[in-house]
Design brief:
binds threonylcarbamoyladenylate; binds magnesium ion; Rossmann fold; 12 helices; eleven-stranded mixed β-sheet
């Protein structure tokens, strides 16, 4: 299949031609990737079983992992959900359009293919002008998982989508780099109290300011087990990751650097290519083959925006093992650590004090 690549700048009049073309493809049952303010989404008609099937096929996604339906005006919600609980309304008023997905009891019209057979449906109202224009022009709820091959880091650039899905989908609308870089926060409002299923740019603190306390899915920050299964089916997959093995190292800054340098030297000696995910504050401390900075420790938004791009870069450079620093889990840090933990398959070690370890 030939994938159409179209750059779009919403400030220019010819943008509408591209948006119309994307909408036509979606209405005809095809697949179009487009930018949102979080990551690029792979869109298809969310009310059409065949289009949903194509999405699973293109991504290689397990069919029990439900899709998010994207809308461009709040009225569309009434078509696809059975009820809107009062707390959901408060969250919608506070954060829509924006990087927040809500889980509702689903209406009959939504096919089981879109929800992985669940009786609930995930809905998001993105704020990105390109996403909104495409959805509005299509006039349909658009099912859009992240536009990566299943298991890979989500795409934050059109080039990432092209690398993963080029030749497998009809069109990629290139609207530049995404703003947040981590997928939307997911809150289940079909239960009371609401439960945070996936941390994102709308933080626990922000949610609690609007609706009081929010429960946290216990499977969020530790390795899912048979007893503690995540409620968002997609969160159970630990392979969210680059080809390289990823290892998180926590502890005091100096100990982290010493430990990573020691381990990297041993790996290098064994003929493996090593990488470190550092920050502006610490990059000079490391001696691996490739040292990349996620951004400033003082700016978690920057770290979130760069994380997936940097993970992909290590793959591109053929790095075999990547060591990463860890971040405080408050605010946006919760989303960053959730994705890092998944990329690392929950492999975290404590840095050793060089003197104590006697090396
Ligand atoms: O930021 C985002 O949300 C991006 C952009 C494109 O909008 N989309 C995205 O979709 O991240 P995806 O498919 O990669 O992740 C959807 C997550 C999965 O973990 C899935 O299990 C969960 O949402 N989910 C979807 N429907 C659900 C439901 N009814 N109940 C619980 N979890 C659900
Ligand atoms: Mg995804």
């Amino acid at each position: 299949m030939n994938t159409i690549l179209a750059k779009v700048d919403m400030a220019r009049p010819e943008a509408m031609e591209t948006i119309r073309q994307a909408a036509d493809i979606l209405r005809a049952g095809g697949l179009v990737a487009f930018p949102t303010e979080t990551v690029y989404g792979l869109g298809g008609n969310g009310l059409d079983e065949k289009a949903c099937e194509k999405i699973y096929l293109a991504k290689g996604r397990p069919s029990d992992n439900p899709l998010i339906l994207h809308i461009a005006q709040q009225e569309e919600l009434n078509r696809i959900v059975r009820e809107i609980p009062p707390l959901a309304r408060k969250l919608m008023d506070a954060f829509w359009p924006g990087p927040l997905t809500l889980i509702f009891p689903k209406a009959e019209i939504v096919p089981p293919k879109a929800t992985g057979g669940l009786d609930t449906v995930a809905v998001r109202f993105p704020s990105h002008p390109v996403a909104r224009a495409v959805i509005r022009a299509a006039g349909l709820p658009i099912a859009a998982p992240s536009a990566n091959s299943s298991g890979k880091p989500s795409p934050t650039r059109a080039s990432h989508v092209e690398f993963d899905l080029g030749g497998r989908i009809d069109m990629i609308v290139d609207g530049g780099a995404t703003e947040w870089g981590l997928e939307s926060t997911i809150v289940d409002v079909s239960v009371e109290p609401p439960v945070l299923l996936r941390p994102g740019a709308v933080t626990q603190e922000m949610l609690e300011e609007v609706i009081g306390s929010v429960e946290i899915d216990p499977a969020l920050l530790s390795k899912p087990t048979a007893a503690v299964k995540p409620k968002a089916p997609g969160m159970k997959y630990t392979h969210y990751s680059p080809k390289a093995e990823v290892l998180l190292v926590k502890g005091a800054e100096k100990n982290v650097a010493d430990t990573i340098n020691r381990m990297a030297a041993a790996e290098k000696a064994a003929g493996r290519k090593t990488g470190v995910m550092a920050t502006e504050q610490t990059r000079e401390l490391y001696h691996a083959d490739v040292v990349l900075s996620l951004g400033s420790r003082e700016n978690p938004a920057e770290i979130g925006a760069n994380l997936f791009k940097i993970l992909r870069k290590f793959d591109f450079l053929g790095v075999d093992v990547v060591y990463s620093e860890v971040f405080p889990e408050k605010g946006e840090g919760m989303a960053i650590m959730n994705r890092l933990q998944k990329a690392a398959g929950y492999h975290v070690i404590e840095a050793e004090d060089e003197k104590r370890s006697g090396i």
